[in-house]
Amino acid sequence: MASLRKKGRVWYFRFTDAGGQKHEWKGCTDKRATQEMAAAVEVEMGRVRSGLSDPRDEARRRHEARPLAEHLRDWHATLTAKGNTPKHAALYLDRARRIGDLTGAKKLSDLTPARVQSALAALRSEGRSLATLNHHRGAIRSFSRWAWKDGRLRDDPLAGVSGFNAKEDRRHDRRTLPLEDVRRLIDAAYKGAAFRKMTGPARALCYRLAIGTGLRYSELASLTVASFDLGPTPSVTVLASYAKNGRAATLPVPIDLAADLAPHIATLALDAPVFPLPTDLGAAMLRVDLDAAGIPYRDEAGLVFDFHALRCQCATLLDGAGVSPRVVQRIMRHSTLELSGRYTRPTLHDIEGAAAALPSLAPTKEDPETLAATGTEGTIKTSPLILSHYFPTGGPGNSRDMSRADVSMKGDDLSLMGRNSQDSSGVSGNGRAVSGVVASSGVRDRTGDLRVMNPPL
Questions:
Q1: How far apart are CA 310 and CA 174, in angstroms?
Q2: How do residues 270-321 score in pLDDT, each as one tens digit?
Q3: Cα–Cα distance, 421 to 400 (Å, whole number)
Q4: Mind spelling out the 3-state secondary structure of 23-36?
Q5: Most buried of 143, 254, 294, 440 (most Cβ within 10 A)?
Q6: DSSP-assigned beta bridge partners for residue 24
Q7: What phi and psi values does residue 365 have, to the nearest 5 degrees?
Q8: Distance (Å, rounded) from C-alpha 327 to C-alpha 170?
Q9: Rounded distance between C-alpha atoms, residue 47 and residue 50, angstroms
Q10: Within 13 Å of residue 163, how many CA atoms lie on the same side as its CB?
């Protein structure tokens, strides 16, 4: 028999469940109504003991009686226990709470697909981007999936909530910089004043490490002296609790960067952060050095260069150096090659260079009437001068020397395949053979004007 007690104006009742555990549930201000609630619970417990009712149904009823806020707190504790960083867990909780508040949900059963979809529409009306809406959708769906797997819901009610095509509403597209601009940025940081606890030389090292390894801002902030191995094959290790994918990772560090990191690390305690980065101020810190280097944060096309763009710069430079896509994927720690491809963003300079490497496909300059009058219509002139203009004199005929790689690397200057090397055969950078006579004196066309053909670069 359930027992009742009054606390303030509210009645509570105690009962024993089918497993023998005692519980106390909150009733209401009316004693008789609370007695009826207690009697209904006891009847249900009897059905469970007799095998006439599924005990999971009773557990779900108990969870349904709890406020939604309690379930959200339990979910947040689970995220933290699974090894997610406190920042990541707090961000997910904040997004799920926002959706819950917009739906007006007080209990688990109040989270319906229609209500959540309306809440996302309300966020959209506030001016939020489609990408932001997808992040909120992902958080509340993660919560509902957890509640289902934890036995708090019979099924996952939000599995059918549709997302949005973020490509239709891009607001923070990133860009990469030409190599000379990257060097200017690092030089400006090295010579700049301190930003919070980050000195100029420390910022320069931080940017170089971000570009050289693809580490994220929070991962860089987590590094201590113990994270580095600056031996013959230098490397840096990120703990699983700070990695986005929840897996520890050890990444190679460029030799010249390791040599510059060594004296900086030598002055720090073993457990001290190597880079005391200010929380959530990566973009603000970088903009100080961008301004000093004369590089705009947002270019004319609306593309930005924020701290995460340093990670894009890493993927782009690796791709430009001829590193295979699979290796780029491993270094960037991406789950798919497609995702690594999104981070590879060649600059306009690289694209123009690639176009210059293509062979010439220009037609002959004589018009059809002239060719018919001379009886050479449908044939190719065999003049050495014309041949030297339309065909390369070295290589396999497609303007490239197939014995050499498409990507050249001179020192630390990485370039994409748009820069063919000049060899002794006289092939210019755009794949055309440059004859010594043509380049020095040119040829005269039918009007008698001197026309220089393929002057040397």
A1: 10
A2: 889 999 999 889 999 999 999 999 999 999 988 999 999 999 999 999 988 8
A3: 9
A4: EEEECCCCHHHHHH
A5: 143
A6: 14
A7: -85, -20
A8: 29
A9: 5
A10: 15
